[in-house]
Inverse folding.
């Protein structure tokens, strides 16, 4: 098993400039739209994250068997797109992704005419798409499992006769991702109406246009965590701007409460540690629109010995790992007590302060666990991370970027 031993810059002072990866969420939506257009257009700054690389490769392959790997968005967007094409296809994924839900989207596509059969166990991959025709109309899907199901349907909606009316049941989680999908679709000429529990997607055609993908605010969260845990910080995250399509852009406001100031310039966002800042005794936020920020904020508040309530993390157990369990186990090793209450609230308790842990942090095949725990070295002096290459899923250059601002990273 490979490991990365991470130690902080001298005196825990972080200074430099970082080029973050581009948003894989936006990249994946644009790739599906380009495939539907069947007319090539330029995509500048396309994400190099594994999920996006895999999706692009599969869309370009022309094959009849697809393996989505570990990419939840890759799988769900691909399933809806392939159902639209109506050709016989087999789809599978990694063992971990096979355990994540796919039936809500498959059932919705079936109701629109897709012929989908599960090859082994009902409701789980692998599955076969038989030749069939998907038509427009009204479809009902739960909004409280994954916004990716909803976005997958929205993206193919314009290509369906009569368009698509999506009725959402239950609480709608991660609404900013649905709004992101709408914004991207509107950029390419399709106007989507969202009101309460209904999404109206008209029949139409996407207009091919050149697009530049903005930097990833989810990736920025680990730099905000580093800034909060540093003794001094001045880091420019190039290209980041507050007027973003991404719900995770709220991270700059959250970390204001943890002593990190953001100054936006033409070049991007400059993060500084506020001198003499008095940390709060209590931190709370509703993460229903930005669940991917949970690991960075949870690790930061634990390291800062702050009582914290990270609320509405209902999908925390349905990500690349069971993040509730992963965060609890690994923070406990650093003497930080936490709890996952009521199926949606991640609670961080204050104690005697974070303590060094001599053994490696397990990453559970989850890129966000690896990146959330590496910054703890600023408090403990050193952190060893198992399977460091897992960061390739969303931020392939993470370790090199750490080294560029003074961190020492040794791979074994």
């Amino acid at each position: 098993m490979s490991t990365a031993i991470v130690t902080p810059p001298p005196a825990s002072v972080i200074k430099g400039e970082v080029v973050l990866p581009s948003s894989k969420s936006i990249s994946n939506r644009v790739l599906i739209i380009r495939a539907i257009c069947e007319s090539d257009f330029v995509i500048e700054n396309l994400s190099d994250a594994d999920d996006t690389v895999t999706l692009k490769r599969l869309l370009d392959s022309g094959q009849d068997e697809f393996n989505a790997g570990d990419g939840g968005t890759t799988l769900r967007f691909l399933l809806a797109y392939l159902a639209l094409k109506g050709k016989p296809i087999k789809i599978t994924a990694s063992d971990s992704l096979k355990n994540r839900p796919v039936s809500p989207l498959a059932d919705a596509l079936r109701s629109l005419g897709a012929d989908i059969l599960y090859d082994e166990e009902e409701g789980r991959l692998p599955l076969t798409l038989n030749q069939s025709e998907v038509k427009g109309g009204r479809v009902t899907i739960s909004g409280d499992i994954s916004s990716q199901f909803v976005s997958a349907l929205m993206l193919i909606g314009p290509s369906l006769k009569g368009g698509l009316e999506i009725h959402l049941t239950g609480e709608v989680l991660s609404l900013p991702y649905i709004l992101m999908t709408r914004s991207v679709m509107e950029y390419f000429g399709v106007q989507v109406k969202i009101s309460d529990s209904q999404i109206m997607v008209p029949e139409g055609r996407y207009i091919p246009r050149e697009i530049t993908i903005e930097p990833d605010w989810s990736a920025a969260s680990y730099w905000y965590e580093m800034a909060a845990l540093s003794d001094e910080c001045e880091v420019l995250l190039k290209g980041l701007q507050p007027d973003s399509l991404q719900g995770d852009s709220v991270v700059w406001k959250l970390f204001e409460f943890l002593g990190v100031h953001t100054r936006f310039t033409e070049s991007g966002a400059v993060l500084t540690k506020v001198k003499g800042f008095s940390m709060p005794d209590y931190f709370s936020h509703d993460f229903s629109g930005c669940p991917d920020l949970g690991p960075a904020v949870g690790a930061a508040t634990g390291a800062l010995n702050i009582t914290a309530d990270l609320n509405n993390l209902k999908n925390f157990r349905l990500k690349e790992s069971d993040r509730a369990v992963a965060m609890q186990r690994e923070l406990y090793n650093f003497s930080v007590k936490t709890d996952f209450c009521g199926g949606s609230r991640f609670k961080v308790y204050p104690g005697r302060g974070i303590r060094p842990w001599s053994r490696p942090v397990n990453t559970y095949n989850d890129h966000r666990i690896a990146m959330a725990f590496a910054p703890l070295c600023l408090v403990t002096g050193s952190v060893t991370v198992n399977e460091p290459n897992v960061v390739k899923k969303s931020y392939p250059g993470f370790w090199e970027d750490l080294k560029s601002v003074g961190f020492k990273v040794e791979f074994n």
About this structure: The longest strand covers residues 232-238. The longest helix spans residues 24-37. The domain at 24-212 is CATH 3.65.10.10 (UDP-n-acetylglucosamine1-carboxyvinyl-transferase; Chain). The chain has a mean pLDDT of 94.
